[in-house]
Write a structure and sequence with these properties.
The chain is α+β, with helices and mostly antiparallel strands. It folds into two domains: 100 residues, Phosphorylase Kinase, domain 1 (2-Layer Sandwich), CATH 3.30.200.20; 202 residues, Orthogonal Bundle (Transferase(Phosphotransferase), domain 1), CATH 1.10.510.10. The strands form seven sheets. Strands 3, 4, 5, 6, 7, 8 and 9 form a seven-stranded mixed β-sheet that branches. The protein has a two-stranded antiparallel sheet with strand order 1-2. A two-stranded antiparallel sheet has the order 10-13. The N and C termini lie far apart (61 Å). It holds the Pfam family PK_Tyr_Ser-Thr. One of its GO terms (cellular component) is plasma membrane.
């Protein structure tokens, strides 16, 4: 069979893919084994179908915004690939619409298709299909009903993310990242953050947004040299300083996500003096100090077992090591979090010492 794809790439930059102007976009027909679509068939949706599915990209359907474009909720009939109503065989989807005036957004659109069409894991969001019609570029994903992890963590009075659930979410993200890192051709996410972790009905966590992802070092290489892209607060120090990208770059970013789960704070934290500082930099001294640990833990958690808090803090500190060589692999992180989860199930609550999180 054949699939639609943007094919005419005008020029290739030295390090980071293709430089294509929106006026140069065109559609070609390529074989299913093309490097972008890989071995999995994606549904191709028409622009009209997605426009109708999202009620003409109505603000009422807007569920997210980012550098790539805006994300809308819509309903699709997968038998006909047309718009549908929720009660008429319509399944909810998330439609990401590229802003047509962003040249870089085209590269990110292509990158998402390239990676997500190859990936299949319970902790990675599923790409259902795409739209590549005239100047329109859209991606269609499974709809994650509970939105982003970041949104839940920052809710002032949110109580849904209790301690046990946070550990489960952390483990889900870790498993998704382990899957990426242990593939035959390892994948570096390169933009791991709480807003790119989406939650399903049962708070199952899935990694999303692969617009900046790259294949990791291969054939004996230890790192890639690339321009620094991503989000402030999540950069590994060696990556920010030199542009050297490794699997351990993702591990550092994951450590920041763990810290957000632990503290309920954003990666860049504004302090009382008005100065914004990296959360990792501010919390590191407290994470290694049993007496000071209560200053870090999210006050919405109330009281949590001290032993569990210390174990979780140790995992965070290992991931946030300034030396990439001493950071754990994601397989090791998964093992640590699974061990913590088993301990939580076996602890006798009457024998636990609790850490009070009120500050």
């Amino acid at each position: 069979y054949y699939a639609f794809l943007v094919a005419e790439r005008q020029s290739k930059t030295e390090k980071d893919g293709y430089s294509v102007s929106p006026k140069d976009w065109s559609v070609s027909i390529v074989n299913k084994k093309d490097e972008v679509f890989g071995p999995y068939k994606l549904n191709h949706f028409s622009y009209c179908a997605l426009k109708s599915a999202t009620q003409k990209f109505s603000d009422k359907n807007l569920i997210g915004q980012g550098g790539f474009g805006d994300v809308y909720k819509g309903y699709i009939n997968f038998r006909t690939k047309d718009a549908a109503k929720p009660n008429d065989r319509g399944l909810a989807v998330a439609v990401k619409r590229l802003r047509s005036n962003r040249t870089q957004g085209h590269n990110e659109w292509e990158n998402e298709v390239k990676f997500l069409s190859r990936l299949n894991h319970p902790n990675i969001v599923k790409l259902i299909g795409c739209c590549c019609e005239d100047k329109h570029r859209m991606l269609v994903y499974e709809y994650m009903i509970r939105g982003s992890l970041e949104a839940h963590l920052l809710r002032e009075n949110g109580t849904e993310l209790h301690w046990r659930r946070r550990i489960s979410i952390a483990l889900g993200v870790a498993r998704g990242l382990e899957y990426l890192h242990t593939r035959r051709k390892p994948v570096i996410h390169r933009d791991l953050k709480a807003s790119n972790v989406l939650l399903g009905k049962d708070f199952n966590a899935k990694l999303s947004d692969f617009g900046l992802s790259k294949f990791g070092p291969q054939d004996g290489e230890t790192s890639l040299i690339t321009r620094v892209v991503g989000t402030r607060g999540y950069f590994a120090p060696e990556y920010f300083a030199t542009g050297h990208l490794t699997l351990k770059t993702d591990v550092f970013s994951f450590g920041v996500v763990l810290l957000e789960i632990f503290s309920g704070c954003e990666a860049i934290k504004k302090h009382s003096d008005g100065v914004a500082r990296d959360l990792a930099q501010w919390t590191k001294p407290h994470l290694s100090n049993k007496v000071e640990l209560h200053r870090v833990v999210d006050k919405k958690l109330g009281s949590i077992p001290m032993e569990e808090a210390l174990d979780f803090a140790k995992v965070i500190l290992r991931c946030l090591s300034s030396n990439p060589r001493t950071r754990p692999t994601m397989a090791e992180v998964v093992a640590d979090l699974e061990k913590l989860q088993r301990r939580m199930d076996s602890y006798n609550s009457n024998q636990l010492h609790y850490l009070r999180t009120r500050r």
